[in-house]
Structures are given as C-alpha cells and as structure tokens.
Amino acid sequence: xxxxxxxxxxxxxxxxxxxxxxxxxxxxxxxxxxxxxxxxxxxxxxxxxxxxxxxxxxxxxxxxxxxxxxxxxxxxxxxxxxxxxxxxxxxxxxxxxxxxxxxxxxxxxxxxxxxxxxxxxxxxxxxxxxxxxxxxxxxxxxxxxxxxxxxxxxxxxxxxxxxxxxxxxxxxxxxxxxxxxxxxxxxxxxxxxxxxxxxxxxxxxxxxxxxxxxxxxxxxxxxxxxxxxxxxxxxxxxxxxxxxxxxxxxxxxxxxxxxxxxxxxxxxxxxxxxxxxxxxx
Length: 281
Hints:
By secondary structure, this protein is of the alpha+beta class. The chain contains 4 helices and 14 strands.
C-alpha cells in the first residue's frame, strides 16, 4: 500500500512595493507626455528572474530590486480579498502608486505592512490592463486600483553597462555627490528656471584617484569641485587595450545604448495619420 501523499505546490513569491522604491524611481520617470511609455514605473523581472522596478526618461535610468514575500505571510483581507497576481510585466503611473502608499500605516510593529503587494490583473482577453495595491493596518483595508500604461517599454537591459566592460570601480559617498550636484545647480543656474547645468566628470586612470567635477555658468565662469573616493578603487582592464582606449570604448558603447533607448521611446505613428515622411494608410 502506498502511503505517500502529494502536497500542493507552493504558490509563487509575491512582489511588493514600498515608499523608498517609488520615491527614488519617480526622479527617473519622464515628464514628457509624448514619451507615454516612459511616464510610469515599469515592473518586470530581470534576466535572473528577480522582480525589479525600472524607470527612465531616455537620458537616465534606474533599476531597483523588489522585495518578495510568501503569499501566506500577507495579511488577510475581508470580503474575498483581492485576485492573485498574474505576474505580468506592467507599467504603472506614479501617482496611484504614491496614493496607495500614503495609506500605509506610519507606525506599525509588522514590517510587511509597509510593503503592500503589487497585483497585476488580466481582462477577459488575457491582457494585463490593471493593477491593484491592497493596503491594511489590520483594522481597516483599502485597495488602490489603476489602469496600466498601454505602451511597450524599451529593453532597458541594453543600456546598463555589462560587468565585462567595467574598467574602474570606485565608491563615492552619495551625500557628497548630492552636495556637488546641488552646488552646480546653485552656481550655474543663479536661480533661473533654465535647464540644469552640465557637469563634466573627470577621473584619473589609477585606483584611489579623486573625482574632479567642472561646471560653467552662463558667463563662462568655471567652478571646480573634487571628491575623494570612499575607499581605494579597483582598476579593471578586460579590454587588452590601454586605459585611455578602454574608457573611450566604454563611452562609445554607452552612447550607442542611450541612442537605442531614445529611439525605442519615440511614440509610434497612429494608423490613419501621417508619420514623418510617410503617407497616411
């Protein structure tokens, strides 16, 4: 007699969001309505299967790993709760994400309450058209539901420099970098509403080299700032070329990747309307 029993497979881990994640990524979301696909946070999975949140405006990009929890650990909701997550890649506007996270209890003794799940929902055609974010303080429950941004998201992985292309790794204090960026804005903008100034970043070819930052104002006056690395950097040369050539090669690859991202982010011509240089269908 066979007494072995089969147990139900464990449900997949549930992706979650949190205020730190959304606050960081909203700085990278595009404010240009003509780049509709880039006006929200994109939730997907990395090449190794980990859930990640991505934001880009075509010039800068950020990727953050999402927390995962077992569905069994999530607080139970009354009245049937909410549907299971389909796990689809979706792009969500920033405002409903923040609106949902505003309802997270400020004081709590259970950390999981601060990281509500992100649930993608499919329509009858099988397309992921909505997401819901259930939030609770254990006494009250609410579910924020919003439509996803119906536009294809660029292949963000192509923009991120690969580890094999890394020639120099240096740690800098984020607070110092923030101070330098703010100083550049205060110096070069002089309180105007013009676009932010350009910062030229210069670093030597040897580990432990300081970072030199140069900024010019509209009168051509130059400011130079220097930041020392948090600790001595690691010099990596996988190219077989001289360091100057290696830096040029990496810069060229990064520029090509950014150009490709910008091309993918361009809005597609709608049917029945003329695209650039084309007759209407």
